[in-house]
Amino acid sequence: MSTLVSPNTFIDGQSTLVEHQIFKSLAEIFKESQHTYAGHRRNIALLKKIQSKAKSQGLEDVFNFMCCKITTKILPLKKSHIGGDRVVKLIAGFIASWERHVIKMNAETQNDINEESSAFSIFLNKFMRYTLRGIESKDRNVRYRVTQLIAVIMDNISEIDEDLFDILSWAVFKRVYDKDPNVRIQAIFSVTKFQQDDAQGDENLIDEEELQQEEREKEQEEQETGTTYADSTNATKILVKLMRNDSSPEVRRACMLNLVQTEQTLPYILERVRDSNAINRRLVYSRILRNMTNVFQVIEKSVLDKLIDWGLNDREKTVRNACIKLVTIHWLNFVNGDLVDLLTKMDVMKSEVAAKIIEKLFETRSEVIEKIKFPKEIWGCFTPEVAFLLKCLFNYCHAKKLDSIIDENYLDTVEFV
After folding, report:
1. Taking the model in full, what pTM does it have?
2. How far is residue 221's CA from residue 285's CA, in Å, rounded to a whole number?
3. How far is CA 80 from CA 76, 111, 250, 288, in A?
4. Does 370 score more than 90 pLDDT?
5. Which pLDDT band, with edges at 50, 70 and 90, does 404 fall under?
6. Which of 286, 309, 299, 390 lies closest to 357 in space, CA to CA?
7. Whole-angstrom Cα distance, residue 172 to residue 213?
8. Pair 342, 331: CB distance under 8 Å
């Protein structure tokens, strides 16, 4: 692997001896971090030690500038270059560690204004502003690395300065329309941080005509003024728009998996079950629906029926298997193995796929059949769910010639009389 930054890297002819020593120490750390993630914790501690020493000697600005300067060395690297990813993780880890230290000090001193907090704020402000210079670069690799840095850093810090927030939001909101899909994906990771974890402000998200009209007016105003508005509603609408219309399946996937689920956004997320990309369709079952603990309360029974029907009849085997696994394992475990409860939640009287679900359940989990027992007392007080289960079990056992199961659970005709 080629070395991106080394102690022999030339900065400029104006550097003093002390500045060169700081640069050499930083370069050693960055060089080591390119080869493995294993030493990141130690390297982060060393970076903090160098920063503290530079600050004590009145060279805080030198440390900040050198960090910015070294970081620019990784910006031209392609997405496939793992060394660039490792350096990005190191920088994000250092910033996150420093912020945690600041928060701890603030709690101990009961004072948010102190030297450590100011030093962190100055570093973060300078580093982000310096890095953002490359976000409009003609080199797509530079744009990718800059947006990657922003996304990873925003994922690791709790708060930033208001002015810096405005600059970052303007930059990342613009990059979601970058011509390179990889840049758009990293920008999306940042945009998701502007969402609010509630439904406030999203009332008009479902109104298609109003949404399109607002988008046209907003785009026209942004083109005239050069300003992109950053708020939770705008972020959500942008993510929904990209998830539905972007040509890259990876971009649509990033939006789908990072969009906050609300009453307004959930229908758009579930739309991906008809996505042209098989991976996106599979993830609706293996990730979105699987992680919903209140799926039977949030999604209408008719909609749930369609989702399962589409999944069971998908042209891709991986999607079909994900749908089958969702129902036969995760949902059945959710109701503690109670088939009658599962059929109740699926509204068996109106469901068009309940029979298919039970059939797939018997096929994939044969041990369930052996556990089903119908005592004689149940034949006198049928419920729709029990009657349906009796019918499905009999049809399956008859087709598979499981006569012993039928004899064990079903009464003879004479007993009915």
Report:
1. 0.82
2. 39
3. 12, 44, 16, 28
4. no
5. confident
6. 309
7. 23
8. yes
